Amino acid sequence: MKRNDKLRIIFGRLTQAIPSIIGIIIVTFILTRALPGDPAVYFAGPAATEKSIQEIRTSLGLDKSMLEQFWIYASNLASGDLGVSVSTGLSVKEELIRRLPASLELTFLALLFSIGVALPLGIAAATRPNSWVDQLCRIVVTAGVSLPVFFTGLFMVYLFYYILGIAPAPLGRLDIIYLSPPSVTGFYTIDALLDGDIETFGAALSQMILPAITLGIFTLAPLARMTRGAMLQVLSSDFIRTARASGLKRSTVLYTYAFRNALLPILTTLGMVFSFMLGSNVLVEKVFAWPGIGSFAIEALIVSDYAAVQGFVLAMAILYVLLNLTIDIIYTLVDPRVGLES
Amino acid sequence: MRRRDFLKTMGVASSAAVIPFLKFLPAEAAGRDDTLVVVSGNGPNSMDIQRKGTNRPSYQIAVNLYDRLVGYSTKTLANGTLMYDYSKLEPEAAESWVVSPDGMTITFKMRKGATFWDGAPITAYDVKWSFDRAVSLGGFPTVQMKAGSLEKPEQFEALDADTFVIKLTRPDKMTLPDLGVPVPIIFNSELAKKHATADDPWATEYLHRTPAGSGAFMLERWDPGQQVVYKRFEGWKNGELPGISRVIIREIPSASTRRALLEKGDADVSLEMPPKDFAELNASGKYTITGVPIENSMISIGLNLNFEPFANKLVRQAIAYSVPYDQIFKQAAFERGIPLWGGKSLTPATIEWPQPFPYNTDYDKAKALLTEAGYEQGFEVPLSFNLGLAQWSEPMCLLLQESLEKVGIKATIEKIPGANWRTAALVEKKLPMHIKDFGGWLNYPDYYSFWVYQKDRLFNSMNYSNPEVEKITDATLKMEVSDPQYEPNIKKLLSIFFEDVPLIPVYQPYLDVAMQKNITGYQYYAHRQLDCRSFNKASV
């Protein structure tokens, strides 16, 4: 496939995403308004009177008709203004810029950890079904799905911080004595390296290890299971038998032929797991005081902070679109038979 | 900001101590003598208490970074805990004040030599601008000012730079105490005005992010959702210079993590933990746990008079006799509070508030009352609580449900999320039976009645109305406590509360704070946030 074709296809994909994003904007707008709970009452504060609630309602623009509110929201959005989150007092754009990298950084590391454990485990289990490795894989998978994240998180804190004292205090992205590195990407580890500050890099990384493992344990289950299943299927197919019969090396058979063919379902799972991790690691964020996007969204939902909820959903929608696109492109690299048109 | 630059800004006086600071491990950094590390569940969402939507944790900004004209003095409670005393005011930005004989004018003299952080003197013009702002912005600050009869800008006048005058429309015992609450802070008006625009004459956008005050601490860093860092304002003249030079307040959402941080010594002060944790830490004897009864606050059960059975006084009294007070106090509150049941008589002996109501757990009496009211078959009632307070209200509801069953009342528990709570309980007032935790800032029964018992008030989630309560509350609200009419009136008011019981108090909760043993000087304030000015930290 020519380079130009590929670009054209990517562009086509992005344009295809526009209607769905518009749809999401409309649906989120309506859904947030349908939430029970009245933000004006909530934000009027403890000593509110009927009059002060009314004043808040006016200042939030909630006294206008739905259509009018939507028009204001849409035109602000067109100029890149996501509105102000009333609960945190900052603009939603600012919040997303600050919190999304925190979540992404953690999610990437967690994903790295879970790929690092799940893939070898899954492959080993598939090549030796019913051996001890397979049993181990089964135990890990069962434990991974069945242990609630807040439990694993608290247990990790208890063991590695409280009892053993080898993990740093779970104080968020950086310990008290460090200052955040000058922001370039918003990823503390990368920013610290760009700044040439190894000490802060180490501090930021060490803060991430426990939460990343906690998240990783939860997500490696579907990955390991999918790897094992896909590998088992591929390994029993004809072309593998042929490859073996032709006397190819075991590693060539396993990695070049089998694993590459098993990679497609694994990639799909990976995409799903990634997007799932990003939005729903609220409990990990709570336990480790991580200033991520998940807890921001939950808090916003609880207090009916419309702008924040809308901004969060929109950001996630865009992220999903990009993620799906990336995965599709990786598909074509892994398996040339997969055409992007299909 | 780079770390190196940050250290440079820390001032010459502390620089000697700063050099080893960096080499220290985190755990030891927290142990530094002049830095206080606080972990809290929630952080401020604004630097401006007068802004719309400002949350409770932001009240600490108003106390630590800003000055008021007056502050409250300190009293020592029986258990040695320090607590504010609003009945005795202390000068803060005002050096002295005089109340005119008719009680209609209060004249303040500003303190000489006191300045804002930028060196500008604090003048009466700054006070005028700040008070005008508080009564003009609308919402919470305006309501709170009104509680002290401060309603419009015409009431405030700066005679010259040193003299500020408040003109009242009626004498009010709340006016002076109301100047000591966190709301009427003094802004650096010249600085603020530079950032005001035609659309935003009160510089709300600027002051929301950038404090402009004269308080004992200055803002060093604010990472919303993560931390606030204060450093001491070395030129503070409006009180004794704080013993702590830096305060780091980190937001740690999980209470279990906060407890672990305290126990490992990485935090000096831990706030907002469940009563169970405070009870356990207290029993361990390794930490200082300070529990101060929250003034004018009661954990109680609200009975909505719009729900048919509760319209009958006898049914309400029957419920008050079926509450398992002792069990709730032990198993839900872990005894972190003061019991408010088991009073002796329907006529109150004192005007102390809150005081125990004359009820205890007595199922036979409850059944007799229900029979008398015609409800011997019992009835079904939804029992609601605020999910945000589930730590203690859920066990409380379960215990209550169990005991109500003994008198034939079937309660179904409904959990209501935080934001909906205000709408359902306070605005629509539609919850038949619910758990309340209201507390007023100024500790008078008439003030409590004004918010909770008077007809149609926001916190009157019981839809209670009684003409006599209306009359007595209106009459006593502005009355001096020394007025001979005050005590008999309040006693009458309390006896109505006792007899009508639209609200069944269970206990007065503690505000608990857990500290390392070397931390002293904690002082409780009505706004339930830390006043960092009085803290001291001894070397370990």
Automatic annotation (TrEMBL), chain A:
Keywords for this protein: Cell membrane, Membrane, Transmembrane, Transmembrane helix, Transport
ABC transmembrane type-1 domain: residues covered: 100-331
Entry annotated with the keyword Membrane: yes
A cellular-component GO term for this protein: plasma membrane
UniProt xrefs under InterPro entries: BPD_transp_1_N (IPR045621), MetI-like (IPR000515), MetI-like_sf (IPR035906)
SUPFAM superfamilies recorded: MetI-like (SSF161098)
Primary location: membrane
Compartments (UniProt record): Cell membrane
Example of a GO MF term: dipeptide transmembrane transporter activity
Regions crossing the membrane: 12-31, 104-127, 139-164, 200-223, 254-276, 288-306, 313-334
Topology class, membrane: Multi-pass membrane protein
Similarity remark: Belongs to the binding-protein-dependent transport system permease family.
Stated name of the protein: ABC transporter permease subunit
From TrEMBL, chain B:
Signal peptide: 1-29
Domain Solute-binding protein family: 88-456
Superkingdom of the source species: Bacteria
Keywords tagged on the record: Signal, Transport
UniProt keyword NAD present: no
UniProt-listed GO biological process terms: peptide transport
Entry GO terms, CC: ATP-binding cassette (ABC) transporter complex; outer membrane-bounded periplasmic space
GO MF assignments: peptide transmembrane transporter activity
PROSITE patterns associated with the record: TAT
Places the protein is found: Periplasm
Record-linked Pfam families: SBP_bac_5 (PF00496)
InterPro entries found in the cross-reference section: Peptide/Ni-bd, SBP_5, SBP_5_dom, TAT_signal
Family assignment from sequence similarity: Belongs to the bacterial solute-binding protein 5 family.
Name this protein carries in UniProt: ABC transporter substrate-binding protein
Species, as recorded: Sneathiella litorea
Organism placement in taxonomy: Bacteria, Pseudomonadati, Pseudomonadota, Alphaproteobacteria, Sneathiellales
